[in-house]
Design a protein that fits this description.
There is one protein chain. This protein is α/β, with parallel strands linked by helices. The chain has three domains: about 50 residues, no CATH class; about 230 residues, 3-Layer(aba) Sandwich (UDP-N-acetylmuramoyl-L-alanine:D-glutamate ligase); about 150 residues, Alpha-Beta Complex (Protein-Tyrosine Phosphatase, Chain A). Helices cover about 35% and strands about 25% of the residues. It contains 15 helices and 23 strands. The strands form five sheets. The chain has an eight-stranded mixed beta sheet with strand order 8-7-6-9-5-10-11-12, with helices on both faces. Strands 16-17-21-18-19-20 form a six-stranded mixed beta sheet, with helices on both faces. Strands 1-2-3-4 form a four-stranded mixed beta sheet, with helices on one face. Helix 13 links the parallel strand 19 and strand 20. The protein is globular, with a radius of gyration of 23 Å.
Length: about 450
Amino acid sequence: MKVEKFPLLKFKGLTLQWDLRQKVTDPLVVLRKDLSSEVLQELKSLSKDFLEEEKDFLSWGSFVSELYGHPSQTLKVLAVCGTNGKTTTAALLRFLLVANGKKVLELGTLGAQLWDAFNNSSPKWSEVTGFTSPEAHTLQSLMHQAVEEGVDAFVMEVTSHSVALGRIAGVEFDGAAFLNFSQDHLDFHKTLEEYKKVKKSFFLNFLPAQKKNAFVVLNSNDAVGKELAQELKSPFLSLERNKNYSIDDSSLELTLQYAGNTFQLPVVGAFQSENILAACYLADQLTKCGVSKHLKDLQKFPGVPGRMEILRLKFKNESRKMIVDFAHTPDALEKNLSTLKKSMKRGRLWVLFGCGGDRDPFKRPQMGEIAAQLADFVIVTSDNARSEDPDKIIDQIVKPLIEQKRSFVRITDRKNAMKYCLENMKEEDVCLVAGRGHEEFQLIGTQKIPFKDSEVLKSLCC
């Protein structure tokens, strides 16, 4: 299999060109909607033959789907939606399907991965995609290849970007889960209300239009999940704590009570119960094994890299417990810190984090304040600064802390910040290293520097 950024697409004997970076001789040029006037003129200069979106075809995604023979109609396609927890839930869902004999293509933040039935040890094939939810042509190409590979289920994370930009047009989903909603991506959506509107539109407008009777799971413990439950006209399954299940997260392992049975699950945090049940309910639509069977299977779940990943390290002959997590929103940071605070019987809770550049700047002071409220020791450092000055990003994070005279340490260099933690922590302390999770590179200016939080922490302990 391949992740095709520019798959070769033909229409009536001609090769389609929809991007200036494609190398196509004698092309049939596709003029997609919302192109800038400059790009439009450049594309028009390539050929006299044109196809126009919303004139010659309904949408780019549905057109490409048709060219590939509508692969999503052959596959069982399951969507995971929400501000936080998509990657973990998709991995849980894939694990369950594979454990019960399904061949699965998993698509999301960690890339595209092909898993053989009954083999959760490692993927048969894996490749990065660039976007959590790729462009329509790449997505449809992957679905087409999945059909040729004999894949049973296609599990994908569906982002608000993919909904707003039409990347998922032409995909017929058999089931979808809504996990939660909180502030993120305001650099793209501009307002929280617009972001929420896009998230809800996937369930209220897109799903019903694409396929009747798609199976829907809603987290009704979430405020927007409750709104969806009131507005959705089609049937859905609701996750309601203390009605469907109860939980105990007083240690770094989750105890879940379901249907009169107790399950010890190797995940951290009460919020994970919603991810777990959403995955179980979606998986059961394909396997019909029963939710209790799936919960039993998940007792062997190995976790997801960079998602509440526990590192038990030795630093100068002393134990160090570090938790690496992708948390990069106020809500995710608050949930993680609250969970760890509750699970700790003794010792201090540390947090090390920063905020990404060229992304929503409004969440920066919020995250600083949350860290100061919930952690005993706060270290603010650099994340992926991109084109912004990392020190100016840190200034925004710590502004409310300075105003409120809260204590914190700022160390711009992330590796040095980690070293400071390891040197000053006690054996009974726990440190949450948040913001980057599984990411293998740090983006500073135009540089892409190898930097994976878990590996850097291990190297400092050598």
